[in-house]
Amino acid sequence: MLGLLPFVAYVFVFMVVPTINVAIGAFKDNDGVYTLDNITGLFDSTMLHTLWNSVVVSGVSAILGAVLGMILAALVVSAPATSLLRRAVMALTSVFAQFGGVTLAFAFIATVGSQGIITLWLAGHGGFDLYGNGWLYSVRGLILVYLYFQIPLMVVVFVPALEGLRPQWREAAISLGATRWQYLKEVAIPLLRPAFLGSVLLLFANAFAAYATAAALVSQGQIILPLMIRAGLTSEVLLGRQHLAYAIALEMIVVVAIVMTAYALLLRRTARWLR
Amino acid sequence: MRWVRPLVLLAFAAFFFAPLWSLLDFSTKDFLTGGRTGDHWRALVENQEVRDAIVTSLELAVLTVALMLVLLLPTMIWVRLRVPQASRLVEFLCLLPLTVPPLVIVVGINGVYSWVNYFLGGSALTLTFVYVVLVLPFAYRALDASLSSIDVTTLAEAARSLGAGWLTVIARVVAPNVVSGVLSAAFISVALVLGEFTFSSLMHFDTLPVRIVLLGKGDIGASMAASLATLLLTALLLVALSLLDRRRSTRAE
Predict the structure, then answer these.
(1) Domain residue extents for chain B
(2) Are A87 and A229 in contact (CB under 8 A)?
(3) A166: left (phi over 0), alpha (psi -120 to 50) or beta
(4) B88 touches chain A (CB under 8 A)
(5) How does pLDDT run across A27-84, given as a tens digit for each residue?
(6) What are the entry keywords (chain A) (predicted)?
(7) Is the ipTM of this complex over 0.95?
(8) Residues 199-218 of A with CB under 8 A from B
(9) Burial per residue of B41-63, b for 16 or more beta-carbon CB atoms within 10 angstroms, e otherwise
């Protein structure tokens, strides 16, 4: 057991201690006196609005990402396992799923920002104003950019579920006289539903906790919770209330923990037939 | 219906490749004349601050891989050989960073880092400690898959019966047999470290992604060039990773 000590101690110091620190810090003011002010601060109208924005960005990008990712996954799985298309898409999606962050923000600025390639092209061909008043830097823009890693992540997690649908089940249904639509409605969709819902939750948590992409894209203002934490840590917006950042971080842990627990439960349901 | 499939695939391809193409276009554009120029790319090697940031990020990648391997590999081998009942605990600890966002750790890490700074000074390279936590889930999976494909116990018993000590067993018998897992873990770790922004920016260290954002306020072409270079390097590492995975899975069959 002693051989485990370095590893466990390391994780404890650099992971568990900071988390506990957040949980305790959320209930302290800047002088270290216990207070509930930070927690009640989470419920003022600005903070609730920011939370709502975060939920919208994560929720919409998760649902859109899941639906589009499922379509792509279905297209890929219908190709033979050895086909070039399937191998290429699987390799690329596992790469793109990791492409969040600063670089992604700049890629989208280069594409649909005020001087972006597509923006300039549309302005030159018919004078269409794609840039508008900067939607790229708002909730809608974040959803678009997040889809860039949400769709591939969905493909990565959903292809195994689709592969778990055995051709025999389809053949059995058809031989019992089911139509293609009946097979989908009575067999495939009920079987895939837990996996799909679980994936939506995973994508939600993925977007809810994401910081770098949003931080690079939105350099000023705090439209979602992670950016509110940045403001709490770095700027004067929340001067004298830096401990509010702890409370927001705690709020984040709670939301992600709830979502991931639900995900784990759904995963267990899927695992029953997915072998 | 036959044209629907290729059309949909084409739409996906456009969505995923347009931003990359735009980066290339933007990073080679001369904003004054509208022509092509290599200036933005040249700035990456000529600008001292950018060069320093690149070096810092690469050093962090190497240190993170080294510390991750030193910490994780012996522990995982030890668990398999001597304390299999602890395997769930180690797995839980390794996957924990997936549910606790880096942003949360940043908020709570002040106290821990005042000790780190006290002992090691305030160098950017101290980020290594949190980066190891960041890459833990991914490195764990890579190493776990590799360790599962060999018979660790038999190897260890053979070595032990020939008089090898535990250190020899771990470093010279088991580790060389899981090279593909070690490489996978290293590649994914490097990919993550090169793109890491949350810790470095909020702890005020000058890594490559932080520098890219700062550049964006001045020479935006250069930050586009740096972004594309990072993305391509990351993609290369991850493709190499998937090739390693494939080789392992074909061998296991």
Answers:
(1) 1-37, 47-252
(2) no
(3) beta
(4) no
(5) 988 777 888 888 888 898 889 999 999 999 999 999 999 999 999 999 988 888 788 8
(6) Cell membrane, Membrane, Transmembrane, Transmembrane helix, Transport
(7) no
(8) 205, 209, 211-212, 215-216
(9) bebbeebeebeebbebbebbbeb
Q: Which of A99, A109, A233 sits opposite B107 (nearest CB)?
A: A233
Over chain A, what is the mean pLDDT?
A: 88
pLDDT for residue B253 is more than 50: no
**DSSP structural state of residue B148:** H
Distance from C-alpha of B176 to C-alpha of B158, rounded to nearest angstrom? 15
- pLDDT class for A240, splitting at 50, 70, 90? low
**CA atoms of A49 and A191, how far apart (whole Å):** 37
> Is 90 exceeded by the pLDDT of residue B11?
yes
- The neighbour count for residue B19, using CB atoms within 10 Å, is 26
For residue A116, give the nearest of A98, A138, A143, A134 by alpha carbon. Answer: A134
Assigned fold of B47-252: MetI-like fold (1.10.3720)
Give the Cα separation of B142 and B137 in Å (integer): 9
One-letter amino acid of B12: F
A-proximal residues of B, 192-251, CB under 8 Å? 192, 195-198, 201-202, 209, 212-213, 216, 220, 223-224, 227-228, 230-231, 234-235, 238-239, 242
> Is CATH 1.10.3720.10 correct for A2-271?
yes
Q: Check CB contact under 8 Å for B228 and A103.
A: yes
Determine which of B31-45, B101-115, B166-180 has the lowest per-residue pLDDT on average: B31-45
Distance from the Cα of B26 to chain A's closest Cα (Å) equals 6
